[in-house]
């Protein structure tokens, strides 16, 4: 198991990026969360098997049909042992 903190930049809010991310994460067995950031980015905390995380990252670089991803930053982090994958609504920032 591995933990990744992923920041997706570009036109990624208002294009169903979070909902599509959850669908892909669920398919790949990825756990964690996705949320919109105040500056227009999308932040994803993802945990899973390394091979599944690679496929997930490949998808994040493209996103859903209407998204225009310009950059992606990914850093390994400490495992949090999430139980599932959630879409966090605005206002739940830590």
Descriptive account of the structure:
With 94 residues, the chain is an alpha+beta fold. The chain has helices at residues 17-28, 50-62, and strands at 2-11, 31-36, 42-48, 68-77, 85-87. It has a five-stranded mixed sheet, with helices on one face. Strand 2 (31-36) and strand 3 (42-48) form a beta hairpin. The longest helix is centred in the middle third of the chain and has 13 residues, at 50-62. The relative contact order is 0.34. The mean pLDDT is 95.
Summary, kept brief:
The chain is an alpha+beta fold.
CATH class: Alpha Beta
Instruction: Please mark out the parts with pLDDT under 50 across 5 or more consecutive residues, or reply none.
Output: none
Report the major sheet.
Answer: 5 strands, mixed
Fraction of helical residues: 25-40%
Shape: globular
Helix count, DSSP H or I runs of 4 or more residues: 2
Structural class: alpha+beta
Mean pLDDT equals: 95
Supply database-style keywords.
94 residues, alpha+beta, Alpha-Beta Plaits, 5-stranded mixed β-sheet, 27% helix
